[in-house]
């Protein structure tokens, strides 16, 4: 078993799946020769050749649209969008075609494609490099949306995504690409898409988070536990489809609910989760279900970004407010 | 007409001042005053020094990711110098010296790379759009500005920039077609610096030149030596005149070279050889321009040394000012989304202020 960070886990998984299935092709801007701007695909072109791992011209619409064609004609494309903020030229392909081909052709064609993209803030980057757009994808019928938060989950979920018969948007929290390491099995394993994980059980409140926010909640929990507040933390892992059962059962037990996400508030995943809790666990609630999210603003550049990003202190503050209600 | 004589389909490239600093096309040498030439040189040198120091500041953790311009000063200042005050500049993100020449202050540009959006708010009389990070989108904005000039009867020309990689984006092609169809007064400049991060120009497109892409849209195109400020100036001047007369857009490919990394996050040693960089260093636009100015009797080594020192101090002082005053007031991250802040945003702002107050106490 090797100790890997998130980037290394991606790299190992891609290599493993390429080895196993000759239909898997990995491509995108700077993905081939350089191995990706974050080095997620380092060594793959050398190992598998430039027909299996290649660079594309600077053309996101082109590379996603071509992925639809490759998928229809028998390949399993794993495309990388360099930053999720650069996904927008490809959004037409994703919304109008990637997600719809199976339904449109009544099952004759499917698009077993994975579109990987780093997302989220906290790296002192330029404009369009810090957004969290999972709600945009979660809103599209026909797409699965997955976000890992640890190297172990990265491998298990990416393996599932590549093997899935339908398109998966695989969003990678870039600020924790290299933040920590974890033991990851060398052999193949999968984590089911659509299944959340109870990271820590507790009795006073259910907190749902994903991506980089999971660690922030974990830091908050340390302080809260010292003060006698018992938190149940759920890592959603899959944004769409949501694992309803795990969340509902947890809220039925704790009676309180907070969702923490980095994405902007309005029409965000938090609203979806709160609707779910209200509908299915209403009678268990001891306080209004709540959300701690980014503000409804454009992610500020570095000198304003710390106001936007959610830190453990704000999580603690929010949880105490709910407990006191 | 330069675009006729230097047909990109025949791989003709315009050079007036070659890399040794000699004039190779005497009849095309622009008639520029000593003052104008020195102004161009000074901005190029300021751009170079500020760029090198910008990288240093970033390495010291004092700036965010920084886009490097070194080596592309002629392709920037040569263009800007050919524009009139009333003309618009619509940049991508690697036009540092063009912005400086067109009236953006060094402090403003530094403030942007320091991580404050206020650095994109240029002075009222400066017609420059903010730096655009998404590849290619700015070209259509430029076309629209040109269309508005036409519809409103304003005497303006729009100059817009993209890189070699950006020519693969759909928006590049849509913008050229739009500009051509609407006969918009736009000059498109491609800074071909040979790399889109790691991806070489030779793989980006099958065409021999980028300038020849103009032909398919029914507009003139020309490839110029992008490290020759005089060639860049002459081609841009002609294109601007054509646009101003109502004869429509032009595509100019300025062939240059990015001597530094793509950004401070990039390691170019992965994808290119040192000897390639060394070869292009010999074609440095600043060296040849200085030789030219010296040969004309306009400039000397002594003056150059003095200017280098002055600019270095000016750059350091400018950045120190940015560091002193560059923090973002909390209100700024909320208040610029709409003419008036809607209630839900006011609520979020007030709640957050209350939170900050409470945790402080």
Write a short abstract of this structure:
The complex is a heterodimer of chains A (325) and B (361). By secondary structure, chain A is an alpha/beta fold.
What does this entry look like structurally?
The complex is a heterodimer of chains A (325) and B (361). Chain A has 325 residues and is α/β, with parallel strands linked by helices. Chain A is built from twelve helices and 14 strands. The N and C termini of chain A lie far apart (46 Å). In chain A, helix 1 runs parallel beside helix 7. In chain A, the strands form three sheets. In chain A, strands 3-2-4-5-7-6-12 form a seven-stranded mixed sheet, with helices on both faces. Chain A has helices at 6-20, 44-48, 60-72, 88-98, 101-104, 134-138, 151-163, 213-226, 244-254, 269-281, 302-308, 312-324, and strands spanning 2-4, 24-28, 53-55, 76-80, 114-119, 144-146, 168-173, 182-184, 197-200, 205-209, 231-235, 238-240, 257-264, 290-294. The radius of gyration of chain A is 19 Å and the shape is globular. Chain B folds into two domains: 2-328, 3-Layer(aba) Sandwich (Rossmann fold); 329-361. In chain B, the strands form two sheets. Chain B has a six-stranded parallel sheet, sandwiched between helices. In chain B, strands 5-6 form a two-stranded antiparallel sheet. In chain B, helix 7 (170-181) links the parallel strand 3 and strand 4 (186-192). In chain B, helix 2 (34-59) packs across helix 3 (73-80), helix 3 runs parallel beside helix 10 (229-245) and helix 5 (106-114) packs across helix 13. In chain B, 49% of the residues are buried. Chains A and B meet through helix 3, helix 11 and helix 12 of A and helix 14 and helix 15 of B.
């Amino acid at each position: 078993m090797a100790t890997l960070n998130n980037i290394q886990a991606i790299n190992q998984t891609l290599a493993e799946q390429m080895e196993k299935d000759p239909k898997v092709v990995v491509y995108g801007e700077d993905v081939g020769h350089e191995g990706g701007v974050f080095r997620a695909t380092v060594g793959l072109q050398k190992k598998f050749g430039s027909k299996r791992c290649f660079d594309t011209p600077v053309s996101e619409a082109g590379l996603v649209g071509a992925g639809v064609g490759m998928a229809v004609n028998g390949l399993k494309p794993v495309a990388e969008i360099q930053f999720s903020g650069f996904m927008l030229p490809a959004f037409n392909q994703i919304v109008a075609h990637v997600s719809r081909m199976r339904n449109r052709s009544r099952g004759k064609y499917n698009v077993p494609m994975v579109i990987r993209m780093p997302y989220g803030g906290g790296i002192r980057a330029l404009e369009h490099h810090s957004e969290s757009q999972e709600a945009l994808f979660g809103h599209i019928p026909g797409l699965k949306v997955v976000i890992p938060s640890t190297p172990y989950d990265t491998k298990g979920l990416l393996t599932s995504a590549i093997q899935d018969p339908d398109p998966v948007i695989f969003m990678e929290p870039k600020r924790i690409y290299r933040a920590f390491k974890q033991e990851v099995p060398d052999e193949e394993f999968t984590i089911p898409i659509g299944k959340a994980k109870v990271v820590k059980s507790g009795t006073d409140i259910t907190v749902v988070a994903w991506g980089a926010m999971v660690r922030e909640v974990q830091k908050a929990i340390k302080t809260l536990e010292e003060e006698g507040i018992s938190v149940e933390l759920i890592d959603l892992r899959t944004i769409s489809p949501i694992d309803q059962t795990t969340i509902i059962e947890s809220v039925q037990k704790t009676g309180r609910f907070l969702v923490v996400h980095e994405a902007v508030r309005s029409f965000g995943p938090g609203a979806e989760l709160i609707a779910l809790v209200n509908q299915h666990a209403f009678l268990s609630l001891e306080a209004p279900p709540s959300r701690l999210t980014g503000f409804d603003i454009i992610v500020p550049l570095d000198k304003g970004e710390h106001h936007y990003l959610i830190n453990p202190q704000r999580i603690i503050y929010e949880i105490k407010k709910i407990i006191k209600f | 007409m330069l675009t006729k004589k230097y047909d990109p389909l025949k791989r003709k490239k315009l050079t007036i001042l070659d890399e040794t600093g000699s004039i190779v096309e005497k009849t095309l040498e622009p008639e520029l005053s000593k003052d104008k030439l020195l102004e161009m040189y000074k901005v190029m040198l300021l751009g170079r020094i500020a760029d090198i120091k910008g990288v240093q500041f970033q390495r010291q953790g004092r700036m965010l990711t920084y886009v490097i311009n070194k080596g592309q000063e002629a392709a920037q200042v040569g263009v800007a110098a050919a524009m009139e005050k009333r003309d618009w500049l619509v940049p991508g993100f690697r036009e540092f010296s063009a912005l400086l020449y067109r009236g953006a202050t060094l402090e403003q540009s530094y403030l942007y790379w320091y991580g404050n959006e206020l650095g994109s708010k240029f002075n009222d009389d400066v017609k420059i759009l903010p730096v655009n990070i998404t590849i290619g989108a700015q070209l259509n904005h430029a076309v629209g500005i040109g269309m508005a000039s036409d519809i409103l009867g304003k005497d303006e020309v729009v100059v817009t920039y993209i890189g070699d990689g950006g020519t693969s984006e759909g928006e590049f092609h849509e913008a050229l077609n739009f500009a051509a169809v609407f006969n918009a007064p736009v000059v498109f400049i491609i800074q071909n610096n040979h790399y889109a991060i790691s991806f070489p120009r030779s793989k980006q497109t099958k065409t021999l030149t980028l300038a020849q892409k103009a032909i398919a849209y029914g507009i003139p195109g020309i490839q110029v030596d992008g490290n020759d400020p005089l060639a860049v100036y002459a081609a841009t001047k002609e294109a601007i005149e054509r646009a101003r007369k109502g004869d429509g857009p032009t595509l100019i490919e300025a062939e240059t070279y990015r001597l530094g990394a793509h950004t401070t996050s990039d390691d170019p040693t992965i994808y290119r050889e040192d000897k390639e960089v060394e070869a292009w260093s010999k074609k440095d636009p600043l060296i040849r321009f200085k030789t030219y100015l010296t040969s004309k009797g306009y400039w000397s080594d002594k003056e150059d040394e003095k200017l280098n020192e002055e600019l270095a101090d000016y750059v350091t002082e400018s950045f120190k000012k940015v560091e002193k005053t560059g923090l973002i007031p909390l209100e700024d991250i909320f208040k610029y989304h709409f003419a008036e802040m809607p209630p839900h945003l006011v609520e979020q702002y007030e709640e957050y202020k209350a939170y900050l107050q409470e945790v402080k106490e």
